[in-house]
Each structure stands twice: as structure tokens, then as C-alpha cells.
Request: fold
Amino acid sequence: METDRRVFTPLARSSYKWKELYKKRSSVERVNSRLDESFGFEKHTIRGEEKMRMRVSLALIVMNGMALGRAGRKNKVAGCPGGLEQPESSIRMV
Reply:
């Protein structure tokens, strides 16, 4: 009889390494959830692996671009003592 790896894990759940691995897993799950909900992969009509790879690649490029845009905007805000250069209402996210 084999042991149940869901209950008896190779790493102790209270260890530092377990917590670090679990953080990575939760961040990947956030990306997967965002792909499903925001980019419409939950109910897709795409047929073929090549088309799906292209659509996922484009979605990930857009997600990275949005993250870079947010990071750049935060740097401008932090470096500008007078506030934002652009009103918050005019900033649009794709």
C-alpha cells in the first residue's frame, strides 16, 4: 500500500521551503485565473494547437505590457513631488 502524497508530503508544510513553493504556486494560479476570466480562455472557440499557442502568447505579452506600464507609472508618481503627471481618470487599462 502506497502512502497518500497529498497527506504525507515530501516537505513539511510548516517549513520555509514549503511556504516559498506555495507562494510560487499561488502566483501561477493567479495568472491562470486571469487568463481564463479576463482574456476569455474559459469558453474559447479556438481549434488547433498552433492557434491556441499564438493566442496564449499574445495574452501573456499583453499582461506583461500592462505590468510594465503599471510599474513605470508608479516610478513616475514616486519621483514626482507634485503628484501625477496625468490625471488618474485618463489612464486606461486594456
About this structure: The first helix runs from residue 16 to 38. Residues 16-79 form one domain. Helices lie at 16-38, 49-79. The chain has a mean pLDDT of 77.
